[in-house]
Amino acid sequence: MRHRDDHADHDHDHHDHHHDNHYSDMQARVKALESLLTEKGLIDPAAIDAIVETYETKVGPRNGARVVAKAWSDPDFAEWLKRDATAAIASLGYTGRQGEHMRAVFNTADTHNLIVCTLCSCYPWSVLGLPPVWYKAPAYRSRAVIDPRGVLAEFGVTLPESKKVRVWDSTAELRYLVIPERPEGTEGMDEEALADLVSRDAMIGTAIAGSPKISGAGNPEVAR
The pTM is what? Predict the structure, then answer.
């Protein structure tokens, strides 16, 4: 796969990116359609609520956090993630809702990874739950490619110039999970405790594991 430091990987086809790309006007239309279908008895609102609840509360980013914690604790699992993230993640019971493949990219002392979907908002729901609003915003999708360091700084992540930034562009077929660097002083912690240090944003690349979570939804530049 082709990539360039501080630039997104564009070596893919974005055709079929009709999903996950919801804006305020689209949300209103979806809600109206949902109401119409409910009135006609074609869908069950309780079933829809159950699906939403699953991704918001039961799945959320907790699945991904467990993947990261296991990678930190188990070198063999980390190597498996590098070779075949789809299979490694599936071994923990987490599989893509649309059959997409996964790739894990590891932050290191000299490289930081950032995930974006430039033409829509493809996102690994099975490990990160529902995508944040800012991830779908045009400002983030364009600026993450043009000025990744600036975007990271707006999230409170300031990197030394010596550290490279790699931007990975998700597609309908291939989605990414950032494995953040393990925080210092966590030796001896079990996987459950380690998972508590991993935020959703850290697994997208807009935060550092163990640091306070800073949401881009409140940032006037990124979320606009």
Answer: 0.74
Contact 223, 140 (CB under 8 A): yes
Digit-coded pLDDT (tens) for 16-36: 444 444 444 545 666 676 677
Give per-residue pLDDT as tens, 142-196: 999 999 999 999 999 999 999 999 999 999 889 999 999 999 999 989 999 999 9
Report CA-CA distances (Å) from 83 to 14, 42, 217: 24, 44, 34
d(CA 70, CA 77): 7
Residues classed as catalytic: 117, 120-122
The CA distance from 49 to 38, in Å, is: 13
Could you tell me the two tokens for 205?
Answer: 């690349």
Q: What is the dihedral of CA 91, 84, 187, 180, to 10 degrees?
A: -120
Q: Strands 101-106 and 111-116, how do they pair? A: unpaired
- What Cα–Cα distance (Å) separates residue 137 from each residue in 85, 123, 165, 223? 27, 13, 21, 6
What is the rounded distance in angstroms from the CA atom of residue 101 to the CA atom of residue 87? 9
